[in-house]
Amino acid sequence: MASFSKMITKTDTEKRLSFPIKFLESLPPSHGGHAVDFQAKDENAEVWTFRCSTRKKGRYNKPVLSKGWRAFASRKKLKVGDRIEFYEARNQTTDESPCYGVRVEREIKLLGSRIGYAPSLSAIKPF
């Protein structure tokens, strides 16, 4: 199963999320285009639609998430230093189409130094 995790940067919180080109292989094909939409489910089982696009020209594709990303980042209150993980999961209803998950972890600091990460409080379902 393909996955990637990344520490959030200022550009990630304000514009778009760039990610490793290797994760492109796990996304649905773009059928000759430079963009593809896919859905990912968060820890609360909320489904988010993202658009992955790549450069139209140049030798390096540089994939980014654009559509849907800013709404996600805003709703999850992502900050520089938080960590995001996207992963491919087995579809429970059918083996034909892949499904994806997305998880947010908050940076934990002690005396100004990062000591680890914890699940986002927005990831915990209320009773």
TrEMBL record:
The UniProt entry lists the main location of this chain as nucleus
Q: Which UniProt keywords apply?
A: DNA-binding, Nucleus, Transcription, Transcription regulation
Q: Which GO terms describe its molecular function?
A: DNA binding; DNA-binding transcription factor activity
The TF-B3 domain, residue ranges:
2-108
**What Pfam families does the record point to?**
B3
Output the InterPro entries linked to this UniProt entry. Answer: B3_DNA-bd (IPR003340), DNA-bd_pseudobarrel_sf (IPR015300), LEC2-like (IPR044800)
Q: Where in the cell is it found?
A: Nucleus
Q: Which GO terms describe its cellular component?
A: nucleus
Q: What is this protein called?
A: TF-B3 domain-containing protein
Native organism is: Salix purpurea
Recall the taxonomic lineage recorded for the source organism.
Eukaryota, Viridiplantae, Streptophyta, Embryophyta, Tracheophyta
